[in-house]
Amino acid sequence: MAVRPIITYPDPILRRTCAPIDDPTADDVQQLARDLADTMYDAPGVGLAAPQIGVNRCIVVTDTAWRDEGAARDLHVWINPEIIWHNDELKPFEEGCLSIPDTFHEVSRPTAIKLRWIDLQGDSHEAGYEGLMATALQHEFDHLQGRLFIDLLKPMKQRLVKRRLKKRAGWKR
Ligand SMILES: [Zn+2]
Predict the structure, then answer these.
(1) What is the mean pLDDT of residues 69-96?
(2) Can you tell me the mean pLDDT for 12-37?
(3) Does residue 46 surpass a pLDDT of 70?
(4) Is 60 exceeded by the pLDDT of residue 173?
(5) What does pTM read for this prediction?
(6) How far is ligand 1, taken at its centre, from the CA of residue 149, in Å?
(7) Is residue 130 annotated as part of the catalytic site, yes or no?
(8) Contacts for 86-93 with beta carbons within 8 Å, 24 or more apart?
(9) Catalytic member of 82, 106, 130, 140
(10) Which CATH number fits the domain that encloses residue 102?
């Protein structure tokens, strides 16, 4: 069990573009996946991307089911994920982020996506998702590009929210 500290906004680690993983079966990648899962379950959260624990590599874990009453854990590990299609229907959903504590805002994203990724055995997959899973995956994959959900707010609101968060974090700008 290795719960790692969660990096919070406005740490520049969250803004870097992550490097793809060459060998998902490598020990350090297997360990990173375990640390991500342990940290996500401990938080608790439904998704966590590697930069959130300070590692700029393309790997995300999600479990959108486990907090439901009586539900078993349903851990997914997504390596080098790519969204290869999304629909044109945008729907608002109130999002939060473990790297931006106590902050919840409605943002609009496509309601259905198709993606390609690699698993921990190195096998590649393609599948479509909609609803909460589509929202959670888009949020997490944005982290791998250095994007945060507050970047999707309208400009004026975005400025206010970011200024407040930086002030709270003790940043001067
Ligand atoms: Zn997040």
Answers:
(1) 93
(2) 98
(3) yes
(4) no
(5) 0.94
(6) 7
(7) no
(8) 86/110, 86/112, 86/113, 86/114, 86/138, 87/111, 87/112, 87/113, 93/135
(9) 140
(10) 3.90.45.10
